[in-house]
Design goal:
With 169 residues, the protein is an all-alpha fold. The protein folds into two domains: 72 residues, Rna Polymerase Sigma Factor, Chain: A, CATH 1.10.1740; 85 residues, Orthogonal Bundle (Arc Repressor Mutant, subunit A), CATH 1.10.10. It has eight helices and no strands. Helix 2 packs across helix 3. The longest helix is centred in the middle third of the chain and has 24 residues. The radius of gyration is 19 Å and the shape is elongated.
Protein backbone atom coordinates (compact mmCIF):
# COMPACT_ATOMS: atom_id res chain seq x y z
CA UNK A 1 0.00 0.00 0.00
CA UNK A 2 1.39 3.36 -1.02
CA UNK A 3 1.53 6.30 1.36
CA UNK A 4 0.70 9.82 0.26
CA UNK A 5 3.55 12.25 -0.21
CA UNK A 6 3.21 15.75 1.19
CA UNK A 7 2.79 18.50 -1.42
CA UNK A 8 6.00 19.08 -3.40
CA UNK A 9 6.33 22.65 -2.09
CA UNK A 10 6.40 21.31 1.48
CA UNK A 11 8.95 18.62 0.57
CA UNK A 12 11.12 21.18 -1.21
CA UNK A 13 11.02 23.74 1.60
CA UNK A 14 11.76 21.13 4.26
CA UNK A 15 14.40 19.03 2.50
CA UNK A 16 16.16 21.24 -0.09
CA UNK A 17 19.14 22.20 2.10
CA UNK A 18 19.81 18.61 3.11
CA UNK A 19 19.36 17.39 -0.47
CA UNK A 20 21.87 19.99 -1.68
CA UNK A 21 24.36 18.95 1.00
CA UNK A 22 24.08 15.30 -0.03
CA UNK A 23 24.54 16.10 -3.72
CA UNK A 24 27.49 18.47 -3.05
CA UNK A 25 29.23 15.89 -0.90
CA UNK A 26 28.95 13.23 -3.61
CA UNK A 27 29.56 15.43 -6.67
CA UNK A 28 32.00 17.98 -5.29
CA UNK A 29 30.42 20.64 -7.52
CA UNK A 30 27.79 23.12 -6.31
CA UNK A 31 26.32 23.85 -9.74
CA UNK A 32 25.95 20.18 -10.63
CA UNK A 33 24.51 19.49 -7.17
CA UNK A 34 21.89 22.19 -7.76
CA UNK A 35 21.02 20.59 -11.10
CA UNK A 36 20.56 17.18 -9.48
CA UNK A 37 18.35 18.62 -6.73
CA UNK A 38 16.23 20.43 -9.32
CA UNK A 39 15.93 17.24 -11.41
CA UNK A 40 14.89 15.18 -8.38
CA UNK A 41 12.24 17.63 -7.19
CA UNK A 42 11.03 18.11 -10.75
CA UNK A 43 10.55 14.36 -11.07
CA UNK A 44 8.75 14.27 -7.74
CA UNK A 45 6.42 17.04 -8.89
CA UNK A 46 5.67 15.81 -12.40
CA UNK A 47 6.25 12.05 -12.47
CA UNK A 48 4.20 9.24 -11.00
CA UNK A 49 6.51 8.59 -8.03
CA UNK A 50 5.82 5.74 -5.67
CA UNK A 51 6.31 6.17 -1.94
CA UNK A 52 5.48 3.02 0.00
CA UNK A 53 5.61 4.64 3.44
CA UNK A 54 7.89 1.94 4.89
CA UNK A 55 10.55 4.56 5.67
CA UNK A 56 10.37 8.17 6.73
CA UNK A 57 10.02 10.66 3.90
CA UNK A 58 13.47 12.06 4.74
CA UNK A 59 15.06 8.59 4.50
CA UNK A 60 13.30 7.90 1.22
CA UNK A 61 14.36 11.28 -0.22
CA UNK A 62 17.95 10.75 1.03
CA UNK A 63 18.16 7.49 -0.95
CA UNK A 64 16.79 9.20 -4.08
CA UNK A 65 19.36 12.02 -3.73
CA UNK A 66 22.26 9.60 -3.24
CA UNK A 67 21.22 7.51 -6.26
CA UNK A 68 20.62 10.56 -8.46
CA UNK A 69 23.97 12.09 -7.46
CA UNK A 70 25.82 8.87 -8.20
CA UNK A 71 24.07 8.66 -11.59
CA UNK A 72 25.12 12.24 -12.33
CA UNK A 73 28.71 11.43 -11.36
CA UNK A 74 28.71 8.45 -13.73
CA UNK A 75 27.25 10.59 -16.50
CA UNK A 76 29.94 13.21 -15.91
CA UNK A 77 32.62 10.56 -16.36
CA UNK A 78 31.00 9.35 -19.60
CA UNK A 79 30.68 12.91 -20.88
CA UNK A 80 34.32 13.54 -20.03
CA UNK A 81 35.32 11.09 -22.74
CA UNK A 82 33.48 13.19 -25.33
CA UNK A 83 34.21 16.72 -24.17
CA UNK A 84 36.93 18.97 -25.49
CA UNK A 85 38.74 21.57 -23.35
CA UNK A 86 36.62 24.67 -22.64
CA UNK A 87 39.36 27.08 -21.50
CA UNK A 88 40.83 29.50 -24.02
CA UNK A 89 43.95 28.19 -25.74
CA UNK A 90 46.83 30.59 -26.42
CA UNK A 91 49.01 28.19 -28.41
CA UNK A 92 48.02 28.30 -32.13
CA UNK A 93 48.90 24.62 -32.55
CA UNK A 94 46.67 23.65 -29.63
CA UNK A 95 43.89 25.87 -31.01
CA UNK A 96 44.15 24.09 -34.36
CA UNK A 97 43.99 20.69 -32.63
CA UNK A 98 40.93 21.82 -30.67
CA UNK A 99 39.23 23.02 -33.83
CA UNK A 100 40.05 19.70 -35.52
CA UNK A 101 38.65 17.73 -32.56
CA UNK A 102 35.44 19.72 -32.71
CA UNK A 103 35.16 19.18 -36.48
CA UNK A 104 35.69 15.41 -36.07
CA UNK A 105 33.10 15.30 -33.29
CA UNK A 106 30.54 17.11 -35.45
CA UNK A 107 31.39 14.90 -38.42
CA UNK A 108 30.83 11.74 -36.36
CA UNK A 109 27.60 13.22 -35.00
CA UNK A 110 26.16 13.37 -38.54
CA UNK A 111 26.40 9.58 -38.76
CA UNK A 112 23.99 9.01 -35.88
CA UNK A 113 20.23 8.64 -36.08
CA UNK A 114 18.20 11.84 -35.89
CA UNK A 115 17.04 11.05 -32.35
CA UNK A 116 20.55 10.29 -31.06
CA UNK A 117 21.92 13.39 -32.79
CA UNK A 118 19.18 15.61 -31.33
CA UNK A 119 19.52 14.29 -27.80
CA UNK A 120 23.34 14.48 -27.85
CA UNK A 121 23.30 17.99 -29.28
CA UNK A 122 20.82 19.26 -26.70
CA UNK A 123 22.63 17.64 -23.76
CA UNK A 124 26.33 17.77 -24.67
CA UNK A 125 26.55 20.91 -26.78
CA UNK A 126 23.67 22.97 -25.39
CA UNK A 127 23.68 21.74 -21.77
CA UNK A 128 19.95 21.10 -21.34
CA UNK A 129 18.72 18.83 -18.52
CA UNK A 130 16.91 15.54 -19.12
CA UNK A 131 13.47 17.00 -18.26
CA UNK A 132 14.08 19.96 -20.59
CA UNK A 133 15.11 17.68 -23.46
CA UNK A 134 12.11 15.42 -22.83
CA UNK A 135 9.77 18.42 -23.06
CA UNK A 136 11.48 19.82 -26.18
CA UNK A 137 11.37 16.51 -28.05
CA UNK A 138 8.02 15.32 -26.61
CA UNK A 139 9.64 12.12 -25.31
CA UNK A 140 9.49 10.38 -21.94
CA UNK A 141 12.52 11.20 -19.81
CA UNK A 142 13.54 7.54 -19.75
CA UNK A 143 13.65 7.53 -23.55
CA UNK A 144 15.87 10.62 -23.47
CA UNK A 145 18.26 8.92 -21.05
CA UNK A 146 18.46 5.70 -23.05
CA UNK A 147 18.83 7.60 -26.36
CA UNK A 148 21.62 9.66 -24.82
CA UNK A 149 23.40 6.55 -23.58
CA UNK A 150 23.03 4.75 -26.91
CA UNK A 151 23.98 7.89 -28.81
CA UNK A 152 27.17 8.33 -26.78
CA UNK A 153 28.08 4.69 -27.31
CA UNK A 154 27.38 4.92 -31.04
CA UNK A 155 29.35 8.19 -31.33
CA UNK A 156 32.36 6.61 -29.63
CA UNK A 157 32.12 3.61 -32.00
CA UNK A 158 31.98 5.88 -35.07
CA UNK A 159 34.95 7.93 -33.89
CA UNK A 160 36.91 4.82 -33.01
CA UNK A 161 36.15 3.24 -36.38
CA UNK A 162 37.32 6.41 -38.12
CA UNK A 163 40.51 6.35 -36.04
CA UNK A 164 39.65 9.66 -34.37
CA UNK A 165 39.12 8.53 -30.79
CA UNK A 166 42.81 8.76 -29.92
CA UNK A 167 42.82 12.29 -31.34
CA UNK A 168 39.83 13.33 -29.20
CA UNK A 169 40.76 11.62 -25.94
Amino acid sequence: MEAALPPISVLYAKHRRRALAIARRILGDSDEAEDVVQDVFSKLAFADVRFDGKAATSTWLHRIMVNSSINSLRARKRRGKLETPQQPIDDPEEQTLGDERHRLFLEALTQLSAQHRSVLTLRELRGFSYPEIARMLSLPEGTVKSALNRGRTRLMEVMERQGHLATVG
